[in-house]
Amino acid sequence: MKLITLIVGLVLGFGGGVYWGHHNQEAAGNLAAKEEEWVLKGKMEATAAIKARLDQVLSSSSSAHPTPGTGFVGGSATGSGNSTDALKQLRDEQDQQLKSMQAQLANTPKK
Questions:
Q1: Where along the chain do its domains lie?
Q2: Which of 90, 71, 93, 68 is nearest to 81 (CA)?
């Protein structure tokens, strides 16, 4: 019985949305544009938070581990270079995504 009620509610909600969208096309377009802008801003916030965390990790790892060959005994550090390079690459990818989302947000139609 619960499943039937759920399906009927889903069908009525979808049908009502389609009916409203068809008869109020301008308002539906405005609603869709606002929703797209809201989702894009949320993605930008999440990407900025990830990038900030990566910057924090990279700054703490660079201060904790001196660069190879600059200490009292020169030598090569094994293993730490690969993870730092991977984190830098990930941070750069996040920065590129953030810039593309900002450009996409600037190009969204404002109604």
A1: 39-62+80-105
A2: 68
